[in-house]
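Reviewer 2 asked us to include a model.

Predict the structure of this chain.
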Amino acid sequence: MAEEVKKDVPQMFKVTIDNITVEVAPGTTILMAARKIGGDVTPPTMCFYSKLKGSGGKCRTCLVEVAAGSTADPRPMPKLVASCRTNVMDGMVVKSITSEKVIDARKGVVEFLLLNHPLDCPICDQAGECHLQDLSYEHGSEGTRYEFQRRLFEREDIGPYIQLHMTRCILCYRCTYVADQITNTRVHGILDRGEHAQISTYISKAIDNDFSGNMIDVCPVGALTDRTFRFKNRVWFLKPMDAHRDCEKCSGRVTLWNRGDEVFRITARKDEWGEVEDAPDGKHMPFKLISKMPYCCCHRPCSRITQRTNRISLNSSLNIP
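Predicted model (structure tokens):
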């Protein structure tokens, strides 16, 4: 009789980040270990998205200092590393906000991201929930040393519901990953190279699929804006309310943004890191994201939204026949 093969329980690694020790599973990145601790210890991110495979390693805002590589090899790493791409080792010691090198590097990265970024915050729909706005407030400087001509692009409607402001784009690639991994076809991408690189489509207004609104949800800046919500209201004037919609394609976990009796938009529910929440039952994988109002994931209005035990009809409030 064959011997039974016993699977070993995976060993947990201990990693210390800013003098706080946490145990994580092997293969966990420094960033995810820091998120387990939470608070200011967690490095900021602009391109990493835990639910999109291949994301991360582009913006360099999550740089950290590794003071000790592991218990077996305690030598420090010679340069700062991207925490979203570097796995932890047992006994690793990491410095985030306690390192002057890291703070100085983040200031440099923010200055680099703002080289071509216009001062559109007063008129940008992303104001109030913009990750770059928060990052520049925490690590940005008062002025810029950049003296050359900035990149200029015309606003472009790349779909019936999406308007692209390429001057605000930081090339995080999130929208392309969404199109690759969630939609059936991807019709947009990065054109050209170097400082001429831009996101666009070869055919105008070509992005028209069931999950096109998720490209707006994952954009960390105001490069992709919802045409149905443009200049309608400011997010700090709206009241968010968790709701649910029964949908065959997505999880249906949404957030209603209303002011009084009027619902201005519907977005996916997001966690404290600004990422779309997972469905608790794990269903509808990988279609867990939901598009924006008024077309939902099925390009039709959300006819009924369930909030707790009450049912709210949105047709009357949105004036949709």
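Residues 233-321 form one domain. The longest strand covers residues 253-259. We have added this to the supplementary material.
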